[in-house]
Automatic annotation (TrEMBL):
Aux/IAA proteins are short-lived transcriptional factors that function as repressors of early auxin response genes at low auxin concentrations. The gene is ARF8. It is found in: Nucleus. Homodimers and heterodimers. It comes from Arabidopsis thaliana. This is Auxin-responsive protein.
Length: 130
């Protein structure tokens, strides 16, 4: 029994050491990210990819940090899915843009302030008039 414990000891020390160094590394990175976030004026410094889905099309990934407004995002989505001009006026065209946030709530694109949207969007759905 004691020889079994002796064999297990080095392994658990190694695992523990690895976990500690990994945890320490994650702590440092998290601290740097949180500390650095206050010093960066533009959200364009980090990429923020979200999936965009439209029925009848393959879902696509889009870096929303490239945009600074809903207008720019709508234009790009129109080009991406070959429906230019249809996303700007949902009442006229019938096309709707909604997004699902990280709490799994479905919201109309444009209802939240831009920064709040960028920080909370999980994915975007383009709903056709049908």
């Amino acid at each position: 029994s004691s020889s079994g414990d002796a064999e297990a000891s080095p392994m658990s020390l190694t695992d523990s050491g690895f976990q500690n160094s990994l945890y320490s590394c994650m702590q440092d990175t998290t601290h740097e990210l949180l500390h650095g976030a206050g010093q960066i004026n533009s959200s364009n410094q980090t990429k923020n990819f979200v999936k965009v889905y439209k029925s009848g099309s393959v879902g696509r990934s889009l870096d929303i940090s490239r945009f600074s407004s809903y207008h720019e995002l709508r234009e790009e989505l129109g080009k991406m899915f070959a429906i230019e001009g249809l996303l700007e006026d949902p009442l006229r065209s019938g096309w709707q843009l909604v997004f699902v946030d990280k709490e799994n709530d479905i919201l109309l694109l444009g209802d939240d302030p831009w920064e709040s949207f960028v920080n909370n969007v999980w994915y975007i759905k383009i709903l056709s008039p049908e």
